[in-house]
TrEMBL record:
It comes from Accipiter nisus. It catalyses: octanoyl-[ACP] + L-lysyl-[protein] = N(6)-octanoyl-L-lysyl-[protein] + holo-[ACP] + H(+). Residues 38-221 form the BPL/LPL catalytic domain. This is Octanoyl-[acyl-carrier-protein]:protein N-octanoyltransferase LIPT2, mitochondrial. Pathway: Protein modification; protein lipoylation via endogenous pathway; protein N(6)-(lipoyl)lysine from octanoyl-[acyl-carrier-protein]: step 1/2. Its main location: mitochondrion.
Length: 229
């Protein structure tokens, strides 16, 4: 039986900060949906970053000199409330921020991260990449060989999730050359376009990705307009 509707906000090409603001509105809506009577209030925010941004989570960001060097390359910088170290977000990348109630779903945080990996692996099989794999902890994300295809970094407060995953579609991977992505020395980064040998845009992947989302999270998807600032 389906666990009920999950609202989908498809923001398209937007600045990273706008996607974060939309996510926070969804988090507030999910918290409000519990009172006075619990009702479904789950969402998933989809976007493609309009400009290059380096973002890092609770484990710390770059030193001042390194941050200045990244700014000189024309990238924005953002400290966000999620797990994980520094990574890159930019055009050609699908950002997915699920706002789900793990208490209602009876899902532990580690189980949620594994569900996100399962979601991407299922999508990869649909898209012709059966060799995609997840690695055992402490690694997260989805990999092709030793190169990360999809990064995962989440936050959970009061059982409500935020942040999520970044799937490289036709991302300019040279942006990753200026950092140690996710703090993992000796590991590479790849994209759907590189692995499949053809240009894969964010729009190309949305339908099969959302099909996989519905299956893994046992839900129906309801498309909605961005509620605004």
């Amino acid at each position: 039986m389906s666990r009920g509707p999950v609202r989908v906000l498809r923001l398209g090409l937007r600045p990273y900060a706008e996607a974060l603001r939309a996510q926070e509105r969804c988090v507030e809506a999910a918290r409000a949906a519990r009172l006075p009577v619990p009702v479904p209030g789950e969402s998933v925010v989809l976007s493609e970053p309009a400009e290059p941004v380096y973002a890092w989570g609770l484990r710390g960001g770059p030193e001042a000199e390194a941050a200045a060097r990244l700014r000189r390359r024309g990238a924005g910088l953002a400290a966000v409330r999620r797990g994980g170290r520094i990574t890159f977000h930019g055009p050609g990348q699908l950002l997915v921020f699920p706002v789900l109630d793990l208490r209602r779903r009876r899902l532990p945080l580690r189980g949620y991260v594994e569900a996100l990996e399962t979601l991407v692996l299922r999508f990869c099989r649909r898209f012709g990449l059966p060799a995609a794999r997840a690695l055992p902890p402490p690694f997260t994300g989805v990999w092709m060989g030793d190169s990360k295809l999809c990064a995962i970094g989440v936050h959970c407060g009061n059982h409500i999730t935020s942040h999520g995953l970044a799937l490289n579609c036709c991302t300019d991977l040279t942006w990753f050359d200026h950092i140690v992505p996710c703090g993992l020395e000796g590991k590479g980064v790849t994209s759907l376009s590189r692995e499949l040998g053809r240009h894969i845009t964010v729009d190309h992947v949305l339908e099969p990705f959302l099909d996989s989302f519905q299956e893994v999270f046992d839900c129906t998807l309801v498309f909605s307009e961005d509620p605004g600032d």
